[in-house]
């Protein structure tokens, strides 16, 4: 019972599903992608076809220590309407097993009847539909045995918290280093201080993208002498 499952239904958010699987496997955690559909082939919200490891009717729930649900509005609604899934989530929660939902998929927790008993987070604007005991503003929140998160860009932190819960801080920090999280955090701090995350060479070439200072482009998409891009600052 050391395995975890990521559920793939019609219209799930591919980023949230695959990023979690990738990071957990980096940490040496056994995780299966499970199709709740009639076939192993599943179609995500952005028309990306992913072949699941197993179908729902091929698994034994007792083999798993946790259930993870990615978001995507259609995918979340599909899971919430699936009585097999909602019963399993309720049973896992009652047994103290890990339950994790991100983005829109906390509505599955509502359908399972457990959202009202936990505090958590979800995609902004969906708090009423989820009906948490108390909704929070953090990007990741862990209450009892239920982990929740906000959306696609919070998925890395959702996955890292899963690793921490399952294997501890050392495993979490190891994967954080592999994915260059410390470097990204440093760059974000610099951007908050008005610095561009691209950087430029002495010759005027952008290190990350190969664009010149006087041309539009790079990862921030700004002009040397104009406002704009992801940095939103001037170089006058």
Automatic annotation (TrEMBL):
| NCBIfam families with a match to the protein in the record | not_thiJ (TIGR01383)
Q: What is one cellular component GO term in this UniProt entry?
A: cytoplasm
Among InterPro entries, the record links this protein to:
Class_I_gatase-like, DJ-1, DJ-1/PfpI, Prot/Nucl_acid_deglycase
Its name, as the record gives it, is 4-methyl-5(B-hydroxyethyl)-thiazole monophosphate biosynthesis
Source species: Negativicoccus succinicivorans
Enumerate the Pfam families for this protein: DJ-1_PfpI
Q: Which Gene3D superfamilies match?
A: 3.40.50.880
Indicate the segments forming the DJ-1/PfpI domain, all copies. Answer: 4-164
PANTHER family assigned: PARKINSON DISEASE PROTEIN 7 HOMOLOG, PROTEIN/NUCLEIC ACID DEGLYCASE DJ-1-RELATED
């Amino acid at each position: 019972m050391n395995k975890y499952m990521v559920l793939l239904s019609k219209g799930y958010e591919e980023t949230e599903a695959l990023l979690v699987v990738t990071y957990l496997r980096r940490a040496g955690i056994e995780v299966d992608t499970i199709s709740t559909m009639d076939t192993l082939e599943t179609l995500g919200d952005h028309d990306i076809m992913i072949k699941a490891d197993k179908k729902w009717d091929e698994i034994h729930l007792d083999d798993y220590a946790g259930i993870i649900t990615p978001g995507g509005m259609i995918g979340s609604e599909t899971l919430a309407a699936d009585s097999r899934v909602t019963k399993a989530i309720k049973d896992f929660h009652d047994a103290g097993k890990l339950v994790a939902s991100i983005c829109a998929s906390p509505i599955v927790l509502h359908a399972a009847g457990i959202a009202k008993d936990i505090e958590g987070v979800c995609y902004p604007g969906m708090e009423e539909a989820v009906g948490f005991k108390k909704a929070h503003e953090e990007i990741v929140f862990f209450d009892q045995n239920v982990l929740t998160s906000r959306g696609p860009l919070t998925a890395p932190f959702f996955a890292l918290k899963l690793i921490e819960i399952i294997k501890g801080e050392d495993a979490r920090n190891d994967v954080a280093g592999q994915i260059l999280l410390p470097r990204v955090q440093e760059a974000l701090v610099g951007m908050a201080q008005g610095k561009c995350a691209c950087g430029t060479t002495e010759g005027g070439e952008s290190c990350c993208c190969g664009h010149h200072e006087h041309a539009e482009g790079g990862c921030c998409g700004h002009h040397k002498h104009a406002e704009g891009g992801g940095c939103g600052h001037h170089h006058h």
